Structures are given as C-alpha cells and as structure tokens.
Amino acid sequence: MSELSEYLLAIALCSPVFFFIIAVGFRLLDNSASLFLDNEILVDSSYVSGDLIREHIESTEDTKLKKALKTSLIFRKLHNFFMILAVVSVPPVIIACFLITFIA
Predict the structure, then answer these.
(1) Is 40 left (phi over 0), alpha (psi -120 to 50) or beta?
(2) Helix ranges, the chain (H)
(3) Closest Cα partner for 88 from 16, 31, 28, 25?
(4) 63: containing domain
(5) What distance in Å separates the CA atoms of residue 62 and residue 67, rounded to the nearest whole number?
(6) Mean pLDDT lowest for which of 12-16, 43-47, 87-91, 95-99?
(7) 33-88: pLDDT as tens digits
(8) C-alpha 96: how far from its chain's center?
(9) Transmembrane segments in this chain: where (predicted)?
(10) Is 81 in contact with 19 (CB distance < 8 Å)?
C-alpha cells in the first residue's frame, strides 16, 4: 500500500471522530438553559427546545438576552450540522476501508 493511501486511510478513520468532537464543543457552548435561569425564566430541562428560544427572542425586549439567545441558537444549529456530518461520514469511511483492504 502506498504512503498516500495510508495517510488517506488514517484521515478517513479520524474524520467522524473529529466531526463528533467539534459537535460536542458546540453543544457545550450552547448554554441556553443557563441563560434562561440567569434571567429568572424557568425551564423544564437542561435541553431547551429551539422553538422556545425563538419565542423568547421575539418576545423579549432585553437586547443583551436577545443577542445571547441568538448566539445560543447558532451554536445549536452548528452542533446539529456537525452531528449530521459525523453520522454521514461513517459509511464512506467503512466502504473506503474495505476497498483499500481488498484492493491492496
């Protein structure tokens, strides 16, 4: 097996884990429940729905809270995006590993 294919295989194997780690980082940055509790808004769980965040963005007059909630919503969307990338990148990695193993 050539050196290039070995490097590509190593990168391919690490890519789903890399996407997952980035997604976890964005999930940790999403502190929407803490924002609600800091502003004395009671929430049922630590995972606040996106609809509730959007509802409070539209209804609140506090610009600082509004900006923080928008940032939290962006982090939530980035978390979802990288989780989808992590899941979608697994099948091509498995296929590539089998092809490289059987071709070489």
Answers:
(1) left
(2) 3-29, 32-38, 50-59, 63-103
(3) 16
(4) 3-103
(5) 9
(6) 43-47
(7) 787 777 777 777 777 888 888 988 898 888 888 998 899 999 999 999 999 999 99
(8) 24
(9) 7-29, 81-103
(10) no
